[in-house]
Amino acid sequence: MVKKDLGLLVLVLVVGLFVYIRNPLFLSPINIANTANLVGLFGIFAIGQGFVIITGGIELSVGSIIALLGVVFIDLIANRGVPWPLAVLIVLVLGLVMGLIHGLLITRLKLQPFVVTLCGLLIYRGAARFYTADATAGFPFGVNFPDLERLTTGRTDIVALVTGGANQFIPIPHSFFVMLVLAIVMWFVLHRSVFGRYLFAIGKNEEAARYSGIRTTRMIVAAYMICTTLTALAAIFFAMYTRSILPSGHGNFYELYAIAAAVLGGFSLRGGEGSIVGVILGTILLQVLQNLVNLLGIPTSLNFAVMGSVILVGVIADQQFKLYRERRRIAEAARQSMRPESAPAE
Amino acid sequence: MVALADFSMDVRPGEVIGLVGENGAGKSTLMKILGGVTAPDRGTVEIDGVPYDGLTVGGSMRAGIAFVHQELNLFDNLDVAANVYIGREPRRGGALQLVDTKKLNAAVQPYLDRLGASFAPTTPVSRLSLAQQQLVEIAKALSFNSRLVILDEPTSSLPIAETEKLLEVVAGLRAHGISVIFVSHRLHEIVDACDRVVVLRDGRLVGTLEGDSITHDAMVRLMVGRDLKVAYAPPAAAPGSAVLSAKGVRTPTYPDREVGIDIHAGQILGLAGLVGSGRTELARVLFGIDRPHGGTLLLDGQPLRLGTSSDAVKAGIFLVPEDRKGAGLLLDLSIAENITLPNLKAYAPNNLVSREAERRRAESSRRDLDIRATDVGARTGSLSGGNQQKVVLAKWLAMQPKVMIFDEPTRGIDIGAKSEIYRLMRQLADGGVAVLMISSDMEEVIGVSDRVAVMHEGRISGILDRHRFSEENILRLAVGRPLDAAVTG
């Protein structure tokens, strides 16, 4: 797993270097800050997607949740006068409840995750559009939330902060730091905690996990709840970042970004394989690719095509590498077992 | 590694040959060579006097050799006829290449007739029993005009009555001049069915038995190189009180039948019966996998409610499931990770798993149970069947069992590992654990249990004390007939 992450890191660096050579603006402070922001925003919910994919499931309603909870959040604080900390709490709880419902439908009613969350995708999108009567949700003129804005869309120059302003680097948007903190916490949860081990076990073989006395139902539901709650958090960040939400288009295809990031990061859609480092690197690679399209003057219309091609090539390369290693392992094993008797050949 | 050395045998037309040997004796390698999967380093395979160098899978099939594997290779989403002629479907409709179902079914019917099958070519395979599915495999073999059918452990998962039927089918093949190689761990079937027995040990032919010289003892002696029987080891002390009791429990499979059973401390209770009699279903209820439709469970006399398997584990009720690879173990995880899984919190201070603690636990399990593995970090799937089963045991022995349920604990395991598992069961019982052993292996049921309960169609049809143990008694109860003498309890 570590090796895989390393390979992906190398790929990110190689692509980054390539872009930088073609267009040095890639490493300009503005571009770095922008890319970091996007990595942060997409990374937050991609981590959540990772938890679901580990169990062998999938969460397709991410984009619609971001739209629905985004308009709800803006409406609460801009129109209904709900204090923003309370609004944040409400939105997070709504996200939690969505995951709970998905999880229960999947585990108790034994529905397929694809079907349940596809329905979620449709329902939440419809609800978002209905909520605003298909109008754009935004903040009225002059309405400001300085604290909330500083927290979500503000930037901090870490170097300046540490050195007390003596040295300066680049002010990085807070979404990136939030993602980073989440990634570290979730790394421990997935890779070191009891719960994480259970998720891997369930993803590999749910039956065997059950026969080991693991409450598989509860664990799977928890994975969906983590996913949708992180998505709800991302929804708040996206709402504050875009400041106006067109419910029919906001967040479209975001679930696919998350799934793509996970796949690039070494997750198996069959479950039981993947790492937090991988999904973060996958998110970074996707954002760098988008950036590449802009910086190298490739028509923006090719955006998705570039992403798709890179993912495809990456997956093929990974598969070939796996086959190669497997073959080498078998050859090695064969040689090992031959050794004791190989001396006098006939 | 030489899996098979200087091995020669011949098969005559219409002969039934038993092939026996411990796991790793070279049976599979021999099968693979005959099937064209592996090429021998030296030597040849001759079919009808024609030497086949570089036999391929297709070549082997065309030459008339057919395999019926232990794990059946049927498509259970298709019907019988489609399975028999898969890849060779009669076509119609010209360029449309439609399957000519009528012709297909007509072609399959005679094979089914010949095997005495009671199902139609159009029956979906998913609706057939395991034994019937085997007949489909054999029908497939016949449809290739096979002249040698190799049955790999055909009876290992069959109930007794169906085993008899299969042996009749084998006899029928012989009568048609078709040769059969019969690989089995169940020696009494070999005695019944075979004209000749070939015994392998460590890749060598150690003996051939023919006719009357085919006896259980003779085979075992050749297989292991020593006399070995399942010798009953009596318990160290008189059994204690009932630890786990089921009263009027109805399982999801037999919602209208009530099961009552008491499992006592210090005693091995054998649970015999035909496959499908509800034994595994009972085990699933006792382990909290399925919820009973009614009735009560008592643990130490107190009512016990099991919502999930997790509740059972907390109560000290552990299950070694029948399906070792699918349910007993996570083959992709390491030995250590498998062992600690049911009790992971004990190795996780502050909820973070300590690899070091896991490793220590696994190392001590490895020593205690003599698990043969290079490293406790090794993939569990890389172990042999016997060692995998020991890992399943280690999982539970790392905790404090009150009740241990073994479902077919030695299926597909070689004799050496078997006796170790028997010894462990006895050790557990002597340590005060209540042991329930589900087994379809008569020798095992009689040789290991202190008491035997027999199930028939979802009910306990009788309970035998040791002095009443006999194959006949158990069989009678298993098929739902009363014993001659007055029997109960």
Explain how this protein is built.
By secondary structure, chain A is mostly helical. Chain A contains 14 helices and 4 strands. Chain A folds into 2 domains: 297 residues, ABC transporter involved in vitamin B12 uptake, BtuC (Orthogonal Bundle); 36 residues. By secondary structure, chain B is an alpha/beta fold. Chain B folds into 3 domains: 209 residues, P-loop containing nucleotide triphosphate hydrolases (Rossmann fold); 176 residues, Rossmann fold (3-Layer(aba) Sandwich); 68 residues, no CATH class. In chain B, the strands form 5 sheets. In chain B, strands 4-7-8-1-9-10 form a 6-stranded mixed β-sheet, with helices on both faces. A 6-stranded mixed β-sheet of chain B has the order 16-17-18-13-19-20, with helices on both faces. Chains A and B meet through α9, α10 and α14 of A and α10 and α11 of B.
Tally the beta strands of chain A.
4
Strand content of chain B: 15-25%
Give the helix tally of chain A.
Answer: 14
**Level-2 CATH architecture of the largest domain in chain B:** 3-Layer(aba) Sandwich
Q: In the CATH hierarchy, what is the superfamily of the largest domain in chain B? A: P-loop containing nucleotide triphosphate hydrolases
Any idea what the radius of gyration of chain A is? 22 Å
Distance between the termini of chain A: 44 Å
What are the secondary-structure elements of chain A, in order, as H or E?
Answer: HHHHHEHEHEHHHHEHHH
Q: What's the structural blueprint in terms of helices and strands?
A:
The complex is a heterodimer of chains A (346) and B (489).
Chain A: H1 2-22, H2 29-54, H3 62-79, H4 84-107, H5 113-131, E1 137-138, H6 146-153, E2 155-156, H7 158-162, E3 172-173, H8 174-191, H9 194-204, H10 206-210, H11 216-242, E4 244-245, H12 254-264, H13 276-295, H14 303-342
Chain B: E1 16-20, H1 27-34, E2 45-47, E3 50-52, H2 57-62, E4 65-68, H3 80-84, E5 91-92, E6 98-99, H4 101-114, H5 130-143, E7 148-152, H6 160-175, E8 179-183, H7 187-193, E9 196-201, E10 204-210, H8 216-224, E11 242-250, E12 259-264, E13 268-273, H9 279-286, E14 294-299, E15 302-304, H10 309-315, E16 317-320, H11 324-328, H12 335-340, H13 355-369, H14 385-397, E17 403-407, H15 415-430, E18 434-438, H16 442-448, E19 451-456, E20 459-465, H17 471-478
Parallel strand pairs in B: 1-8, 1-9, 4-7, 7-8, 13-18, 13-19, 16-17, 17-18
Antiparallel strand pairs in B: 2-3, 5-6, 9-10, 11-12, 11-14, 14-15, 19-20
Helix pairs in contact in B: 13-14
